[in-house]
Amino acid sequence: MKITTTYLRQVIKEELEAVISEKANPEEVDPKRFPMKLSQVDKDTAAANVKTGSEKYDEMASDDSIPVAAASIPVKDLKPSQSSMNIGKALGMAISMINKSGPFKGGPGGNLGAFISNDNYIMDGHHRWIASFMVDPNAEVGGYIVDFPREELIAVLNTMTKGAFGVDTGKAASGGFDQFKPVPLKAALEAFIEKGNEFTKPEEVLNAVETFTGKKGAAAVEAAAGKFSENLAAATLSVPSGSPERPDMPVIDSKNVAKAVEMLTQGTVDVNKPYGDVEIKTEPENTNESIVYDRLKKLLK
Known about the structure:
This protein is mainly alpha-helical and 301 residues long. The protein has helices at 5-19, 43-49, 87-99, 126-135, 150-163, 182-195, 202-213, 217-232, 254-266, 288-300; strands at residues 68-74, 79-80, 110-117, 121-122, 140-146. The two termini are 22 Å apart.
């Protein structure tokens, strides 16, 4: 049989596909290419990274595919990826969930509209998550499960944030988990009963805590604060060491979620070797593995 260039190219490609997984491997995500903090992501590098996983640049595009699936999970099974939350916003949501009013007519739970790592860390939707937890830890929230662990998923989503969606800075930080204890919760409830909040009127706040606790007046406020805190005793109110602060976390707005799902599942983002043939601003690697990949890529051209 005559060995043509086309035949040799096909054989090499098939051999590569045999040893390379059909989906991206988080253990092979290069932290130099995909920094974990948004502020450390180079915009030009990110712009290249979010397209060079496609077949146009990378003939092994399947090695960059990350499975994503819609799912509904109890809030008690989920963990936060950031510690910064606004107690007023979270408590306002919780009151509305009890009253089943406004955007929370379905009660606690609902759709986070956000990504969740395969080790159960939510990437966004923290206020709805903790508000639901305060009211009912068994309530389920919807989201998109990405088959990548927390650390590598944050890094990939941060590259997409800058490179695909043009967002250079994350959201501002506010208070931490220490707000969600009986004393500060009670103080926030008392302020809401006096002035209301963005979701409910003052009288609706009092009605909610009375409904939630079966008590009246000031006794209901104190009991509600205690019950919220008691429910949160089962929550993971901490983040792993080295986690980015909120301003360094990904920003994938609701309008971009569908596009982000498409990019992840189709392997558009160049998360694993062999990398697409576009210049990337990273330090050169001289490992035998990288040399072999470079030579094989040249043979495939």
